[in-house]
Write a structure and sequence with these properties.
Blueprint (H helix, E strand, L loop, with lengths): L1 H13 L5 H29 L9 H66 L10 E5 L2 E5 L24 E3 L2 E3 L1
Antiparallel strand pairs: 1-2, 3-4
């Protein structure tokens, strides 16, 4: 009984805060434990990378193989989830763009109908024989069309005008002739 009490008192002295020898012993033990953990992790990493496998038996190799397969399965699942999320986002964006295109198409058709009505009011709809015709003016030329034939319009970019000033201009008073 006496030896147990002596060991208790000795351990109590070593673990008291502020005792320099006990702190040094504690940190040495802690450093040794951390060093051992680091070595174990480095060895594990090398084995996972397929290095230093010579000391392993069949059972250890099978355990390593199953760990790698489980890790690979987790990586594949994560990759598949990311790809599925991207596909869903692209599909959503595609649907939004399609809806915008439908709305723009409706607006273009509405404008086309308004223009046709305006042309009818301005230029009339009857020819010399009294038959109903649509009259369109494009680029200063008139085109007559049968109202029962479908009209297909295509939007295009306006052509850029090149307005260059001639290098030499004749001056007459305040006017310049080009």
């Amino acid at each position: 009984m006496r030896s147990v009490i002596e060991r208790y008192n000795k351990a109590k002295e070593e673990n008291q805060p502020g005792n320099p020898t006990s702190e040094i012993k504690f940190w040495k033990r802690e450093a040794a434990v951390l060093r051992q953990q680091l070595q174990n992790l480095q060895e594990n990493h090398r084995q996972m990378m397929g290095e230093e496998l010579t000391g392993l038996n069949i059972k250890d190799l099978q355990n390593l193989e199953s760990q790698l397969e489980m890790s690979l399965r987790g990586v594949r699942m994560k990759k598949d989830q990311i790809l599925m999320d991207e596909i869903q986002e692209l599909t959503r964006q595609g649907n939004l763009i399609h809806q915008e295109n439908v709305e723009l198409y409706k607006k273009v058709n509405q404008i086309r109908l308004e223009n046709m009505e305006l042309y009818k009011k301005v230029y009339g709809t009857r020819d010399v024989n009294g038959t109903s015709k649509e009259l369109f003016v494009t680029n200063g030329q008139s085109i007559e069309e049968d109202p029962h034939v479908a009209v297909h319009l295509q939007l295009s970019q306006p052509q850029q005008q090149n307005y260059e000033t001639p290098t030499r201009a004749t001056k007459l008073g305040r006017l310049q002739l080009h």
